[in-house]
Amino acid sequence: MDVSYPIRPVDDAGLPVFGQVSDQAFNSNVPPATMLEFDRLVIEPERTLVAFDGDLPVGTTLAFSFGLTVTASCARSLTRQAVPHQLRLGGRRSG
Asked: How far does CA 38 lie from the centroid of its chain?
């Protein structure tokens, strides 16, 4: 199977779509408007990536850039990845 999923970062206008994928993947019950407001405070769009199946966003990842003290070391970033449940089960695919 040779399926290609274009991957690109989002800009500020794409944050709602980015959030929808993550909210579905993590079963969020936070209202979308509230989550978008929070995302705009902490997400750096240039540090995001979204995979698309046609026009449908099917996966996301991002890196937060901040210092985080961890026992005996210091981490420089934190990441989050999301794929909607139906896609993990072999759902929609272009073809």
From this structure: 14
67 Cβ contact partners less than 8 Å away, ≥ 6 residues apart? 74, 75, 76
Helices (H), the chain: 15-25, 32-42, 85-88
CA distance 93 to 95: 6
Q: What is the pTM of this model?
A: 0.65
Neighbour order of strands in the sheet with 73-82: 7-8, 48-53, 56-70, 73-82
Report the alpha-carbon distance of residue 78 to residue 55 in Å, rounded: 28
Please write the tens of the pLDDT for every residue from 61-73.
888 777 666 665 5
Residues 31 and 38: their CA atoms lie apart, in Å, by 11
Topology of domain 7-88, CATH: Aminopeptidase (3.40.630)
